[in-house]
Amino acid sequence: MSLFPYTIFQLLFLFIFNTRRTPKPTIMRKIVLIILFFITATSLHAQIDAGLFRFPDVSQTQIVFSYANDLWVMPKEGGLAVRLSSPAGIESFPKFSPDGKTIAFSGNYDGNTDIYLIPTMGGVPSRITQHGMSDRVVDWTPDGTRILFASGRESEKERFNQLYTISSSGGMTDKLPLAYGEFASYSPDGKQLAVVFRSEVFRTWKRYRGGDVADIYLFNLQDNSSTNISSQVNAGEELPMWNGNSIYFLSDNGPEKRMNLWQYDLTSKSRKQITNFTDYDVHFPSLGPAEIVFEAGGKLYLYPLSGGQSKEVKVTIVSDKATLKPSLENVSNNINSAFIGRDGNRVLIEARGDIYSLPAENGFVKNLTQSSGSFERSPAWSPDGKTIAYWSDQSGEYELWTLNNVEGNNTPRKVTNYGPGFRYDLFWSPDSKKLAFIDKAMKIKIVDLETGITTDVDHGLRM
Length: 463
What we know:
Blueprint: H1 3-18, H2 24-46, E1 54-58, E2 62-67, E3 70-75, E4 79-80, E5 82-83, E6 91-96, E7 102-107, E8 114-119, E9 126-127, E10 135-140, E11 146-151, E12 162-167, E13 173-175, E14 183-186, E15 192-196, E16 217-220, E17 226-228, E18 237-243, E19 246-251, E20 260-265, E21 271-273, E22 282-287, E23 291-296, E24 299-304, E25 311-313, E26 315-316, E27 335-340, E28 346-351, E29 354-359, E30 366-367, E31 376-381, E32 387-392, E33 399-404, E34 413-414, E35 427-428, E36 434-438, E37 443-448, E38 454-459
Parallel strand pairs: 4-26
Antiparallel strand pairs: 1-2, 2-3, 3-5, 6-7, 7-8, 8-9, 10-11, 11-12, 12-13, 14-15, 15-16, 16-17, 18-19, 19-20, 20-21, 22-23, 23-24, 24-25, 27-28, 28-29, 29-30, 31-32, 32-33, 33-34, 35-36, 36-37, 37-38
């Protein structure tokens, strides 16, 4: 039993005992306050400090988002989130239907990413698309009868996506008259699209300003004409959301050089920045009837379409934390590197963040690092066979570690304190006293294991 409730009841008893002579209303008021404090503290103690709520969407009353690869729904004002799905696959890009009663999402229930529908209040997911390629939900049509989605099903090897629609009851798909398409939003009358043909959302680069930058086009579905509203801006602009006479979108064109929420006026053709996050980008905004919901810094925010400041939405998650439970894992398909020992009888294997010693033929397999909370990589066995060296982020950054007596029990030794940065394969000196490596800046270095001193050797130009 936790000591926390016991302490509360002790305080409650002392309070009652010490206030025997006070008027009853005062006693009762204090008792009620203590009980309320106990309930609140217990609930806070039970909930999970969750973050990174992805792909949110908002209806008139609720917010749906993806967390831990499952879908969750909660009141728009924040509070306790309820899990809608929990299969082994990933659920992403949920979108409320215009009436708020149904959620379309991309899910992997049957071995492929397809579009599914699920009632907002829970139920059995129904599969809508049946193609062997991946389908990503983009939006609903304004009348709520069809779902707009992106797919590489006809682009050969999924080199790019195109836009399609499908009825909410399933059936045949209709391809939009666009050669490319990643994200889009319908005009209120359904006759036009604000569309992004190429996206930076799934790229690893930041603050990109090259020829592959994301632009927003207005595409007329009746005469197939288009206008680039981002042509005069040297920045990425995407994830458009059409509301009335405005198009909301993400852009890193502001002084912060971060993806923030912007607004484009279709009449005046002017634009203005409406959020000003400086540390982190805004991710995956989504338009609702009265607000735009988005994620920034792992938290959820609502921006009112009527104007004003965006506000954080507090989320309470209750989960069994099943992914943190110890488990046995088959790492045979996660081998990243190997290093043969001096006599050829054993080999070092790096797999799934741990380093193993394996026999060439017969013998035992030993996990040398057993570190579920850190990642070890690039093991190298010394020429004398007494020491292995490897990189580990156990301290928070990748540093050089060594381990002696590798077949027995020994404590790893941290050799360096380089700090941020990435370093590559390790190479021993013939006398087993030094190690050479190359870092991410293409600098060649040698570290002396006895003194811990690192010497800069040279600077590569092309590696």
